[in-house]
Amino acid sequence: xxxxxxxxxxxxxxxxxxxxxxxxxxxxxxxxxxxxxxxxxxxxxxxxxxxxxxxxxxxxxxxxxxxxxxxxxxxxxxxxxxxxxxxxxxxxxxxxxxxxxxxxxxxxxxxxxxxxxxxxxxxxxxxxxxxxxxxxxxxxxxxxxxxxxxxxxxxxxxxxxxxxxxxxxxxxxxxxxxxxxxxxxxxxxxxxxxxxxxxxxxxxxxxxxxxxxxxxxxxxxxxxxxxxxxxxxxxxxxxxxxxxx
Amino acid sequence: xxxxxxxxxxxxxxxxxxxxxxxxxxxxxxxxxxxxxxxxxxxxxxxxxxxxxxxxxxxxxxxxxxx
Lengths: 245, 67
What we know:
The complex is a heterodimer of chains A (245) and B (67).
Chain A: H1 2-9, H2 11-43, H3 57-84, H4 87-119, H5 127-147, H6 152-166, H7 169-179, H8 199-231, H9 236-244
Helix pairs in contact in A: 1-2, 2-8, 3-4, 3-6, 3-8, 4-5, 4-8, 5-6, 5-7
Chain B: H1 6-11, H2 16-61
């Protein structure tokens, strides 16, 4: 276990290990999302109140989960980078941020589109929606800050600090539906309670959520490998690798 | 199966204008992310190979060992 963590910490070790891992994670993501997606669109029964509009849940909830999880991932990577000077953590953070921003946008967009038939409005300034919008701005800020410095290391540090400070928004998003009166409904899934919908509805959702997580891991592996090649391009092992291709 | 025909599936019980844009944007973003990551890798490899060839070329002209 420790050996694997140690190996993941070095760019070369990460590059080799991720090559073996990557195809499996992609396959899992494709399979889960295909089954979950078709099940949710075709076989799950229509909601007795919302009709077929509820099928938006199968993209909305996984995207919203990822939007928040990726931000926590950014903050963890930032600590690992700042405290232990592990460069791979910063490389992973740099490729996770744009995808996190994308997932936040998807969650906001699908939520807005869903809001029209169910709430009668696409946007309200309530706690959940506003804190998700702030999350999108935090992502954009982190991406912009990283690019704003002439020296890459300064950009990495600044982005890391913003990720660590910004993570305070995550519990605010999570508990926003409990602390304030919001239009947004409380969490659909919790670890301690059974979901308040039939299994034919929540099982495909579970598959989609796990599938989205696999997709995120696979994409992060793939793009971190690119980032490693870019940043380590003058290193001996990368030059050997390029020559061998 | 929750729908009895292709047209009723596409109609989404009257919610087509909401369900399909939400799914469409999600799918577009996921597919776009994969295409981008693959293109990034291809371009990067091309650049690295070009640079490697140039460096090997320069050092062999100078009579220095390429390594």
